[in-house]
Every structure is written in C-alpha cells, then in structure tokens.
Design a protein that fits this description.
The structure is a single chain. It contains 13 helices and twelve strands. The protein has helices at about 5-40, 45-50, 75-80, 100-110, 150-160, 180-190, 220-240, 260-265, 275-290, 310-330, 340-375, 380-410, 420-445; strands spanning about 60-65, 90-95, 110-115, 125-135, 140-145, 165, 170-175, 195-200, 205-210, 210-215, 255, 295-305. By secondary structure, the chain is α/β, with parallel strands linked by helices. Helix 12 (about 380-410) packs across helix 13. The termini are far apart. The protein is elongated and about 75 Å long. The strands form two sheets. Strands 3-4-5-2-1-6-11-8-12-7 form a ten-stranded mixed β-sheet, sandwiched between helices. Strands 9-10 form a two-stranded antiparallel sheet. Helix content is about 50%, strand content about 15%.
Length: about 450
C-alpha cells in the first residue's frame, strides 16, 4: 500500500471511531432525560423532610482521612457533624498527625482517649490512639501513622459501627441533606447496594438559607472542569443508570455497604486514589457471588469540590487516573466483553478501554495525521472539515446539550447566572483544554507502572 492509502485509511478509521464514541455518548445523554424525570417525581422537599423521622433510614458512618497540607480540619468536622440525618457517626483518621490538625481537633471538640472496641476486618498500618469527643458523641478520631489514603479508609471502616458508610474527601463540601438523598434509593429498591451522588466543582461556595450555593465560575480551567463534570460525571452516569452498568467510586460521594468492601479485602492500602480500582473490583465481586446488584447515580448535586486551577496539576491528576485504570483493567481482563458480568462486561468495560484509555492517543494521532495529510496534499479541505466536525464539533454539541439540560433541570445550580459562561466554556473545553489533557493522558501510557496484586 502507498503512503497516501495508509494515511487515508488511518484517518477514516479514527474519524469513524470518534463518530461511534460521540454517538454513544449522545445516547447516554438522551437516556439521562427519562432518568431525570423519574427522579424529580420522587425528590420533592416535603418527601425529604418526612424522611428525617423515618425509622427505615439505614444508619451511616461518614469516614474521612485528614492528610497533611490541608487546612480547615475543625471546620470540615463541623460540616460533617451538622449533616441533617437521624442516625450517623463521623470517623476522622488523622494521618500522621496531619500537621496541627489533631491538636486543633482536641481543643475544639474536647477529645479524650478511648480503647479500641471493634473487630479488625482488614489489616492496616498501626493506629496510635482513638479519641472520642465530650461535646459531640458522634465523633471518633483516629491518630494513625502516615500512610496512603486507601489504608486510612480501611482503618476508618474497621472502627465504624454502622453497616453503611460514605467516604468524604477533605476538599468536598457536603449539602446538609446529602445523606438523605444518598439513602433514598436504598428504600425504593432492595437490589441497590451502593449509591453515587453528583460531585460538582465549585472553588467558591457560600451558605444561603442553610444550603450551599456555588458562586460564579471563575477561571478558564475551573470552567472547563465544570463542563467535564457535567458531561462525564453527571449526565453520562445518569444515562448508564438506564442500562444498569454504572461505575461508582466508593472513595467519592458514594454510599456503600461496609461488608462489600470487607469482602473485597478492603481498599487498596498502597493507593492514594483507591476509588477507581475498587469500583471495578466491586462489580466483579458481587457478580461472582451471585448478587444481581444495582449501583445507581442520583442527579442531586450532593457535594461540591474544590478543583485545581493549574493546568499541570489537572493534567497530572488525569494522567494518574489513566495509569490506575489501565492497571486494574489489565489485572482483570476477563471482565471486558464478558456477558457473565452483564452490561458492565459488555458495555461499560469496553467503553473504559476505548472511550477513556484509547481515545486520547487516537485523537493526537488524528491531529498529526491531519496536518501531514494537508501538508502533503493527500487530504483535501473538505475531508479536514468533515474530520474536525466529527471529532470536535460533535463533542462541542454534546457539551452544549449538557449545559442546556442542567440549566433546565437544576435551576438552583444556576442561581449565579452562569449558563452563558458555561456555553462559552463548552467551546473552550474542546478547543485547547481537551488537547492538553490528551497529551497528559497519552504520556500515562509510557510512564513506569509498578505491577500490583489487587485482591478480589
């Protein structure tokens, strides 16, 4: 074959690939509409006020690891303790003392040392001391030696009293009724084993009427990440609900059963971002033991997260996620295209390989091929416009639809009048931000990865 034939075939293949991927994402977006409709029929405020006094609500342990370098430990603890829920506890693992966090917590909550009184279900690195609060009986603090996040979460789950748990990152601000909204699907469907909530980026929030209200989106990187979150972590996840193959991350805003995590052998103790691998392992574990489980994501913005503003920091985070995802999917290759795992094996796992892992490399190859083809005369302008429309234009259209859907469906989330700005970011995200992230994600293929033996 000649060079022209090879280049033309390559470019046609990449264009068809992105047409298929973008069309599948459009289907997910369309599937999110009936999911939203059915949700809002049940999620009125009167219903949630009635839930507060319900005996049917499961008690919940809210667990978090406080790591060094993050300020506001006392304010974070108060935010968790003020959640509107009848029966819950808060367990804070103070990682390696986390700077002055432990002493600040001791003074603010009048902590006193108590002996450990629980069964160790997962082995962890040593925990030094356990503290209860004289002023807030729901609070338990663990003084633990410095370790990765996964090990700290295991220590918190060991000490927890309740069968359900929610992991709270210190960078996340929860809505007051977050636990009510996360627990609702458990009451409506007995096959639900964990529930994911929508985590929205907002670097600036304020309190109005006892609720968190996001301020105006400031900065192009924050705006582009908001588009990412809306498209990938909200509407696409709602679309996945319709085919019952969601991938929820128990280290995020997710309500899960402690017994399932213990059945897996716990979070990966050597991982600082253990959510991705445990999500895949959880599906495999439950299917292997014969549990036909549902793991829905609810559309409520139950929490708001501070996101990085520096492009290099954002890129490194996405790069790390790609490496972790490649590692777990390589270790568990039997899940991909395996009908035994239902829609997860046939749909979600191939999409993770193609739409998340392979797409950045193919996108960069496509841009390079387009420049070479135009420069050498192999490709003409009409093909170039068709290619860009398939790869970039289709993606912009999906982002615009996403912004419009959220403006119509979540009026409260648009109190700051940001719809116009988000529409602009929907274009900016596809013309610059996306290409920079593709470079970081592609670099993850060539980074050295240590082999890992993940349980489950």
């Amino acid at each position: 074959m000649t060079f022209a034939a090879i280049l033309t075939a390559l470019m046609m293949t990449i264009m068809i690939f992105f047409l298929v991927i973008n069309s599948f994402q459009a289907i997910l977006l369309m599937c999110s509409v009936p999911e939203l409709w059915s949700h809002w029929q049940l999620a009125d405020d009167e219903y949630f006020h009635a839930l507060v006094g319900s005996e049917a609500l499961p008690p919940i342990s809210v667990v978090s690891v406080l790591q060094a370098g993050r300020a506001g430990a006392v304010e974070f603890a108060h935010m968790l303790l003020d959640l509107n829920y009848p029966r819950f506890e808060v367990i804070l693992v103070v990682d390696g003392g986390a700077g002055e966090a432990l002493s600040l917590l001791e003074r603010a909550f009048e902590l006193y040392e108590v002996p450990p009184a629980f069964t160790v279900n997962v082995k962890t690195r040593p925990v030094g001391k356990y503290f209860r609060s004289r002023t807030h009986p729901r609070l338990l603090c663990l003084d633990k030696e410095s370790s990765p996040l996964g090990d700290g979460l295991n220590a918190a789950l060991n000490a927890a009293r309740y069968p359900h748990a929610v992991s709270a990152a210190q960078s996340v601000a929860f809505e007051p009724d977050a636990l009510l909204r996360l627990s609702r699907p458990l009451l409506l469907d007995r096959s639900v084993v964990c529930v994911g909530g929508v985590l929205r980026p907002s670097n600036f929030t304020r309190v109005e009427g006892g609720r968190l209200v996001p301020s105006r989106v400031v900065g192009w990187t924050v705006g582009c990440q908001t588009i990412e979150y809306l498209r990938n972590f909200m509407f696409q996840r709602l679309g996945w609900n319709r085919i019952a193959s969601n991938i929820v991350y128990p280290s995020g805003t997710v309500l899960f059963r402690r017994e399932d995590i213990f059945g897996l052998g716990g979070f990966d103790p050597d991982n600082d971002t253990p959510g991705i691998d445990i999500a895949v392992r959880l599906h495999k574990y439950l299917t292997d033991i014969g549990v036909n489980a549902r793991m829905p994501v609810i559309p409520d913005p139950v929490a708001w997260s501070v996101v990085p503003t520096a492009m290099a920091t954002i890129g490194r985070a996405r790069q790390h996620c790609i490496r972790v995802l490649m590692s777990i999917l390589t270790i568990k290759p039997g899940l991909v295209f395996n009908p035994e795992y239902g829609a997860v094996g046939v749909g979600a796992m191939p999409y993770l390989w193609l739409g998340i892992i392979a797409a950045p490399l193919l996108e960069l190859l496509g841009y390079a091929g387009l420049l070479i083809g135009l420069g050498s005369g192999v490709l003409d302008a009409s093909f170039a416009w068709a290619y860009l429309a398939s790869v970039l234009g289709y993606g912009i259209l999906l982002s615009v639809w996403t912004v419009v859907f959220q403006a119509v469906s979540f009026k409260r989330a648009d109190q700051t009048g940001d719809t116009g700005r988000l529409l602009a970011f929907a274009v900016i995200e596809a013309l610059g931000y996306r290409q920079m992230l593709a470079l970081y994600r592609t670099a993850a293929y060539f980074a050295e990865r240590q082999p890992k033996n993940i349980n489950g």
